[in-house]
Amino acid sequence: xxxxxxxxxxxxxxxxxxxxxxxxxxxxxxxxxxxxxxxxxxxxxxxxxxxxxxxxxxxx
Length: 60
What we know:
Blueprint: E1 2-3, H1 6-12, H2 19-26, E2 33-34, H3 37-49
Parallel strand pairs: 1-2
């Protein structure tokens, strides 16, 4: 079981995410990948703080 934190998930939203991270996550079955409600809240809060044109993306 893997609990993915804010740093890991936000890395995946970057224009060029870490290839090492992508390769590692590809080896972990999706049913073993989890995150917390705190992490979700941090991602939503962070996305709301971004300027309209500065890399904003939809999490929903």
